[in-house]
Every structure is written in structure tokens, then in C-alpha cells.
Amino acid sequence: MHAALDERLQAGEQAFIDQVIAGRTAQPGALLSILEAVQNHNPHNYLPMESLRYIAAKADVPLSQIYSVATFYSFFNLHPQGDNTICICRGTACHTRGSRNLLQSLRLDLGLGTEDAEDTNEADKLLLTTSDNKFTVRTVACFGQCALAPVVEVNHRICGHVNERTLQREIRNLERESE
Ligand code: FES
Fold first, then answer.
1. Ligand 1 centroid – CA 104 distance (Å)
2. CA nearest 126: which of 112, 140, 113, 109?
3. Which atom of ligand 1 is nearest to the CA of 91?
4. How far is the CA of 61 from the CAs of 1, 4, 29, 65, 77, in angstroms?
5. Which residue among 103, 142, 159 has the greatest number of ligand 1 atoms within 8 angstroms of its CB, and so is best to mutate?
6. What pTM value is reported for the model?
7. What is the pLDDT at residue 1?
8. How many CA atoms lie within 13 A of 124 on its CB side?
9. Neighbour tally for 1: CB within 10 Å
């Protein structure tokens, strides 16, 4: 089983995980910190399944336990993330102030389509990444900044009273920065 794991993970990544595990196994909360280090080391800021399998084997922790930790905490990603993350609030205050339209226009702007938009209700979390991996669009239930509704977080920066024009401007700026 280990040989199969080895084939899927690059040697450099294995060595990195070995080092991370060796430095942390005795610490309380070691698993969280191992997963955090491995995710931060990934160029697309996520935890590939082969990395989770390798961690399970090396740290001698059941894969199911690792998987439930990785899915419980929202800061862990199980899919590749874009270079930029745009997070739109779908809470009540933001919804009544037009966050749904913001989300639709952002999806269209980034070529993410809106086919499934009618099927998802406000409670559904959305996570979409453009095919060039430049942008990830996600939604959140509330940022706790309702007075600023509608609220959008652009690469961890909270922007309040956002409208379609200001959001488009943010996107164009990010595109320009990455050229
Ligand atoms: S509902 Fe959007 S910040 Fe609270």
C-alpha cells in the first residue's frame, strides 16, 4: 500500500510531509497543525487526497479521522484554490441588499456559468474555481458585518456596500496584478 502511495505523491512532497510529521507528533493538536502546514505548502492551497492518505499512513491516524477534520474546518480545502478568492455573503442582510445579483454577475464575468444557480438555496455553500485557477468564488452565511451589506471578501479583505461595478473593478485590478 505504501508503494502505491509513494507513486502518487512526489518525492519532494513526501519529504516535506515526513518532516512536518516528525516535528509535530508529540504536540497537542498535532493533526490540525500538520494539515495546516501541508495545505500552506501546496501551490494551490489545498489538501489533495493522496496527501491525506500519506499523512494517515505516516502518522498512523485513520484516514476517516483525518478526512473528518479536513472537512469540519472551513479553512481546509479539499480542492485546488484559485490564486484569488472572492467570497460573497449570502446572509439575510446581504441578500436583501442584492448579494444574489452580485454572485450571478460575478459568475458570468468569470465564465463560471449560472446553470445550477436556481437549484441552490441561500444555505448552500458554493465553491467554484475558474479553469485557469486564477479565481475561486465561494459563499458564506454571514461575515458578522451586516451593517456593511452587501459584503464581499476579496483575498481576505472585507469590502462593504459592494455593487456590481465596484466588484468588477476589483476583479479587473486583480487580473492586472497577475499579468
Ligand atoms: S448577512 Fe452579510 S455580513 Fe451579515
1. 17
2. 140
3. 1
4. 15, 18, 13, 7, 19
5. 142
6. 0.76
7. 45
8. 10
9. 7
